[in-house]
Amino acid sequence: MYSATGINCTPMAGAVVEDVKVLGLPLIPFVIRVLIALRLKRVEYELVEVQIAEPKSEILVKSNPVYKKIPVLLHRGKSICESAVIVQYIDEEWSDGSGSSSILPADPFDRALVRFWAAYIDDKLPAPVRALRWGTEAEKAAELAGQIRQALGLLEEAFVECGKGKGFFGGDAVGYLDIALGSCLGWIRALEKAKSVKLLDAEKLPRLTGWAERFLAEESVKGLVPDADEYQKFYAAAEARTSATPAA
Amino acid sequence: MVAAAAEVKLLGMWASPAVRRVEWALQMKGIEYEYVEEDLANKSAALLRHNPIHKQVPVLLHCGRAVTDSLLILEYIDETWLETPLLPRDPYHRASARFWAKFAEENCREATRKAFFARGEERSEAIEQLREQLQRLDEELEGKKFFGGVEIGFADLAVGWLAFWLGVSEEVAGFTAMDAKKLPRFAAWMDDFLRVPVIRDNLPPREKTVEFFSYYRDQQLAAAAK
Description:
- By secondary structure, chain A is of the alpha+beta class.
- Chain A has 10 helices and 4 strands.
- Chain B is α+β, with helices and mostly antiparallel strands and 226 residues long.
- In chain B, helix 1 packs parallel to helix 3, helix 4 runs antiparallel to helix 5 and helix 7 packs across helix 10.
- At the A-B interface, strand 4, helix 3 and helix 4 of A face strand 4, helix 3 and helix 4 of B.
């Protein structure tokens, strides 16, 4: 278990012990991706929580001067930024040669395919998810929910081509695309609860629904994707802080 | 091993920087390919079939399978044809190349697009933002001839569109973002990049490109005004 305050607890059996730090927050999907990837490779890490609202933590600004965003991976005195770049770095840095714990598939076409869909997720999900969460107009809400459902609908179809009949986008095991989408599941479930809207609809998206259950039950994922209630607590606290602040 | 020409097809458009980027990579590796010019106002059935979601060029067809998105195509090419590697071997340097490629593709393209279309008050802010992005590239070139080091690599191919199309954008839209005195490393890189034979011999004709983007800009501005 890795506590959110950044203290290593019990090391995993057969774990790689190096000095690996992740600047991030446990609720952010892009950060969760990195943590899952490290777990898959059995790499011990320290999650260092940082301030992402102004004034941003100094360590964040220093290690990611271009974007000043989380996640950032700190390894061997270097910083690696952007979740997609970090996950591929993790895959390549801790590659065991036999490919058995590969996050990306081996075949170049399959690699292009999962990268395509991961980029699609980043292009289509975060904006409407955020807008829906914080927005107030009902009409706009319906439109945003529609956009999210449409994107998930395409991913439902993509599951067939990518998964090749197996349980995950990565086939038999959790892979790059599972991580890209799976890290967003808490967000999606929280949104469904907060806005009383169906996004990952079991009837319309049976493959994704089954996949989501399997994904969240995976050893490498357990405990890393917060459930809807944890997000709710966080949002409620954020809202309380906003309303407590006197108007400018 | 050079692939048989029939195996590799590139759907492209002559003025597109994303398409050229793929051609540079194919040429660097000595891969033979068939180029198919797309009329983007009248997209072919092939383009719509192979890129149904984004309906954009470039699309690389290899043994009948389609790869879309120019940076993904570059990685595909690098992983399929192993001679003349585009990405370095070391995982950290690979991460760095991917980071700067993403930066060039997202931040720089967006900033250029904004400056290209901005008018009135928004314009000077857009130009300033573009300058900031170029400044970052200039800083990254510290101690290096190319982003890839001694020779061009993945990041250079990703950033490379700026070497030609930034000047075109500036000319068409009538602004100046690039300043060789303030960004000497980036200025030198632009010159060196354009001098690389594979790049130099694979650029669209400048005047024709300026004409094309001029027309494109007028069209887009007129459509936005409606």
